Q: What sequence folds into this?
């Protein structure tokens, strides 16, 4: 069997993607930090088979055959079959593992689907399957078709996905690294992920995105996200941390407000999510430390801060926040350089 292995990170959005059209086209552009320590490693092995009438693959997760991942991967293969016309010619073995704890509530779809897409892009390259785009852009297009936010995990640092007039090279089809100037305060930016709830997601992101279709505030929200991306671009170059915090916290709360005002409505925050937010606000006010929160589609809190206040924030985490985390678990991560072929 031939094989290839990629390690790919998760990412955390600063301006959120929430709402999409057919074929995984985002309703608004988004920007994220690629993470460093929260990764999925995937090995794809393949051998040619006789008939080419169906997709043939096995999925192994942390050493165990895992059939629950099959429907997502089967749907992904169907969506990318036109780009990788050889898929039905091979039997695949997909072996995958995460650096973050199983069902930590950290979405593994961004890291998992980007790692698998990179493996498939490597296979396409080894077969000399012609495609017009460069390798990473092609991998990002594949990733988007697996999970929207996965398109951003293909690149390191700050990454934009979705067409935006002020972002050079931006596209709805794939993500692109932010090429404009970024202030040094964002170098090695930190993300401490406070694991509040480790359970299964109550609402899948696909269902959540779907609820934006008939959402009464959708069109205003999509406009606001584009405006927020323009603001974020300016903030990232000026290094204005207060403005950064104001915008990321507002984006996080707006994302959750969209969920609370959809029909059906839902609340993904837990009491401890709010307690942590209150502690962060109190600590910031009392100590003037630039520390901010963001949320993804779940109860966990991502605490964002510059490297220069790391010691202070680590002490705060241990003394005030750890008690609100399930089994006292949290992950110290930071901005990362993107996927690696192993
Ligand atoms: C709240 O990328 O998980 O994390 O495209 O349906 O797979 P699908 O959705 P997904 O949505 C992530 C939404 C978010 C915000 C973000 O990452 O931008």
A:
């Amino acid at each position: 069997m031939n094989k290839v292995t990629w390690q790919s990170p998760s990412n955390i959005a600063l301006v959120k993607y929430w709402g999409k059209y057919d074929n995984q086209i985002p309703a608004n552009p988004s920007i994220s930090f690629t993470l460093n320590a929260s990764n999925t490693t995937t090995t794809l092995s393949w051998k040619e088979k006789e008939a080419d009438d169906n997709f043939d693959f096995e999925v192994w997760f942390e050493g165990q055959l895992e059939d629950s991942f099959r429907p997502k991967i089967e749907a992904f293969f169907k969506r990318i079959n036109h780009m990788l016309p050889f898929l039905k010619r091979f039997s695949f073995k997909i072996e995958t593992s995460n650096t973050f704890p199983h069902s930590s509530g950290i979405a593994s779809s961004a890291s998992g689907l980007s790692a698998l897409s990179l493996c498939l892009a490597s296979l396409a390259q080894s077969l000399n399957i012609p495609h017009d785009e460069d390798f990473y852009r092609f991998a990002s297009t594949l990733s988007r078709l697996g999970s929207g936010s996965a398109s951003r995990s293909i690149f390191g640092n700050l990454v934009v996905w979705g067409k935006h007039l002020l972002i050079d090279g931006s596209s709805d089809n794939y993500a692109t690294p932010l090429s404009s100037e970024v202030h040094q305060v964002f170098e090695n930016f930190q993300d401490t992920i406070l694991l509040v709830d480790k359970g299964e997601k109550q609402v899948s992101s696909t269902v959540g995105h779907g609820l934006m279709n008939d959402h009464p505030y959708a069109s205003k929200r999509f406009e606001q996200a584009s405006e927020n991306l323009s603001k974020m671009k300016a903030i990232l170059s000026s290094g204005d941390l207060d403005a950064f915090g104001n915008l990321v916290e507002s984006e996080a709360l707006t994302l959750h407000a969209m969920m609370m005002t959809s029909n059906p409505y839902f609340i993904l925050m837990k009491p401890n999510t709010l307690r942590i937010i209150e502690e962060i606000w109190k600590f910031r006010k009392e100590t003037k430390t630039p520390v901010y929160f963001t949320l993804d589609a779940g109860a966990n809190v991502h605490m964002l801060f510059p490297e220069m206040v790391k010691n202070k924030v680590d002490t705060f985490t241990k003394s005030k926040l750890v008690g609100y985390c399930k089994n006292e678990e949290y992950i110290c991560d930071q901005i990362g350089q993107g996927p690696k072929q192993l």
Observations:
- The helical segments are 70-80, 109-126, 135-146, 205-210, 218-238, 241-260, 271-287, 310-321.
- The first helix runs from residue 70 to 80.
- The first strand starts at residue 2 and ends at 15.
- Residues 13, 16-18, 24, 30, 107, 109, 147-149, 205-206, 209, 255, 296-297 surround DP6 (CB under 6 Å).
